[in-house]
Amino acid sequence: MKTVLEQFLIREFPELYVGVYRPLTENLMSFGFECSDGWFALLYDLSRALTKLDEGVVATQVKEKYGTLRFYIEGGSDEVFELIDKAEGKSATICEICGELGKLRSLGTWLKTLCDEHYKAWVMGYLEPQRWG
Length: 133
Ligand SMILES: [Zn+2]
Known about the structure:
This protein is α+β, with helices and mostly antiparallel strands. It has one domain. The protein is built from four helices and four strands, in the order ααββαββα. Strands 1-2 form a two-stranded antiparallel ribbon. It has a two-stranded antiparallel ribbon with strand order 3-4. Helix 2 runs antiparallel to helix 3 (78-90). It is globular and about 45 Å long. Zinc ion binds next to helix 4.
């Protein structure tokens, strides 16, 4: 994710993303948000909802895996995990590149959630999945 978007999330939700200041042996957030910009709004909404619950949840890793969002935390109630499950599920409907309506697609062994346009670009070789982590 672009640095400016990452910084925005970290500034808006400093307690949730306090892990960016912790060593990698404790927390993997200093790797950044390991997904593309299309999921920014999804992450913003999830971060806001988690912060509202005020349970002191701390994110330990945020990334794309097998084409959808993974949002790992320390602790958390059932309500917290429900919010996270919902957001991870929703990520399979949002293009990871542009944020438009997307679906989970495969190319060889790669999986990505993409809109029609970005799927076409991917198939034609204009998007290299390796670059997105
Ligand atoms: Zn797209």
